[in-house]
Amino acid sequence: MAPRGRGARPGHGVRPPAGAPRPLPGTSPAGLRRRRLGRRAALAALLGASACGLPPGSLTRPESLPEGFPDPLAGLPLRPLGVVAVDTERLGADGLSGLHVAPDLTLTAISDRGRWCQARLLLSPEGAPLGLEAPRSGPLRDIAGRPFQGFLGDAECLAALPDGSWLVGFERLHRIQRYRHLDGPAEPAPSPPGLAQWPGNGALESLGVLPDGRWLAIAESERPPGDEGARVAWIGGPRAWRRFAYRPAPGHDPSDLCPLPDGGALVLERHAAFPEGFSARLTRLPPLPDRPGTLEGELVARLAPPLPSDNWEGVSAFRHRGRDLVAVVSDDNQLFFQRTLLMVLAWTDQPAA
């Protein structure tokens, strides 16, 4: 999703699932159109520039790293290896909000317009992204196998289960659903207690499955009582959720997370403000205890100008050629002046072979 305050976007003109509840307050079509126009004007003023198009027939285009790199990130454990801009029309999905990169370099993402996509990530021997190939995509479906309509398809986070199935977290009608295959029907999955009653925007934005099988979830903007600087978070999973608090940096909101092999996690924290535009941080959580209190991550990367930057919404950690890498993706909000960027980063203590 976009920074807080963005409304739902229309879907693909198909029927809503049987028994779907009435739209949440403020999500009528007319109200959403008014809110969407206001947001687009605000974002246009915020960014003040349009994205350049990709060459015809190209799925990606390389973006230049700043001169003097890596000085802008000196001293931090993660440093970018490269960035590409993605043609979302050729990819088959825009508004990307969740990301997973498998060991075989299959990149999977979901869209807040109710779609999924996959492609093969091409990397240089050093790990820099060279592009994407063989894209495939389709609509996310309800439990009856019908494509979602409108706000029902607002998919915001993606997590891989050990059996090869997927968890997808949705906003507006807040819930988690399981997919044995992303092109198949959904199955209900137990969500954290009280999630369904939260306001329409700013709930479940970050979801991951830790190596020990526990699920980890962080809300984008929902605060615990009495602590305006923290966000509500849960760990555990079905029938075993434990609530705790996660504290992002001031002015930042958690927009995704991914598990790490040591049992910890990376959290992507997004920032949007005038006149700076979009930026983000990556923070690392150590292996999580059964009953966390209030957690705050260690800063491991800044994703901000002079690096190419946009509305960072998805993160995935993966291993390639014996090296741990991290990928992040941005959400273009279906706006002509924003871009879908894909960046790959490496840990500075793990040089390329």
UniProtKB/TrEMBL annotation:
Coiled coil: none annotated. Residues 94-333 form the Phytase-like domain. InterPro entries: Phytase-like_dom. It comes from the Bacteria. Residues 1-17 have a biased composition (Low complexity). Residues 1-32 are annotated as: Disordered. This is Esterase-like activity of phytase family protein. It comes from Muricoccus nepalensis.
